[in-house]
Structures are given as C-alpha cells and as structure tokens.
Amino acid sequence: VAHMLFQWVLKGLILSFLLKPMLSLNPDDPNVCSHWESYAVTVQESYAHPFDQIYYTRCTDILNWFKCTRHRISYKTAYRRGLRTMYRRRSQCCPGYYESGDYCIPLCTEECVHGRCVSPDTCHCEPGWGGTDCSSG
User: Fold this and answer.
1) 40 has which bridge partners?
2) DSSP structural state of residue 94
3) Among residues 78, 59, 76, which one has the least CA distance to residue 67?
C-alpha cells in the first residue's frame, strides 16, 4: 500500500512539473497558440509470464517406480517497464509574437522610433510621426 501511495505521489509531482510550462501563458490571450504534443512515460505494467511447471503422474514405467515426468505451461504475474505515449497541450506565442512573462508581445523587426509595436511588424505612431517605423516627422 505504501509503495502504491509513493507511486501516485511521484506521478502527481511529475505531472505538475510537466504541466507548469504549459500554464505560464494565459490561454485567453488571442496571441497564444497551442498544439498537441506527444511524450513518452515509463510505466510499470503487469503481465502473465509463462513458465514450465514439472509434475509427476503414475504410469507403467517400472524403471522410474511407476512415476512419469510431465510438463505443463503455467503463468505467474510478473512486472516489466514499458513506454506509454501520452499527449499534452502545449501553449506558445503565435508567429510574430514573443513570450514576456505571462504574455505574448508583438515583435516588430524594425524598432518603432516614435511609437509602439501593436502587432507583428506594425507600429502605432505618436501624433505627428509616420512611416512603417514611426521615424518620419
């Protein structure tokens, strides 16, 4: 029972560690994109392991004191490690955005000189300024 409890606690810790990066971005942010990714988890699984069971029966073999050796395949529960494919949703900033804390910020390849970047490669200029990078007065 203690071994099973330890396994559940360990699985919970691993799950929280794996989920932490996915929970850092706000999923309601329209600039957050997500996709499903697969990953492998090592699990312990039980299976029926065959083995040769020897038994004796009475027979007419006088040289073996009327005992004959017989074989039958029996099964016992054994354990092995296996790989299980799991899936998780991975959040990341959409193309044209970069991660800053919990938000996805638009990326302008040219600095917005007199303005601010409002979407990928789009500057919103201060009054009296224009151009793609807000440098024209």
Assistant:
1) 85
2) P
3) 59
**Could you tell me the two tokens for 90?**
């991975």
Query: CB-based contacts of 85: which residues, under 8 Å, 6+ apart?
Result: 38, 39, 40, 41
Q: What is the rounded distance in angstroms from the CA atom of residue 63 to the CA atom of residue 104?
A: 87
Contact call for residues 134 and 115 (beta carbons, < 8 A): yes
pLDDT in tens, 82-130: 999 999 989 999 999 999 888 899 999 999 999 999 999 999 999 999 9
Determine the Cα–Cα distance for residues 110 and 122; give it in Å rounded to an integer. Answer: 9
Q: Among 114, 116, 115, 89, which residue's Cα sits nearest to residue 105?
A: 116
- Whole-number Å distance between alpha carbons of 16 and 84: 18
What's the pTM?
0.51
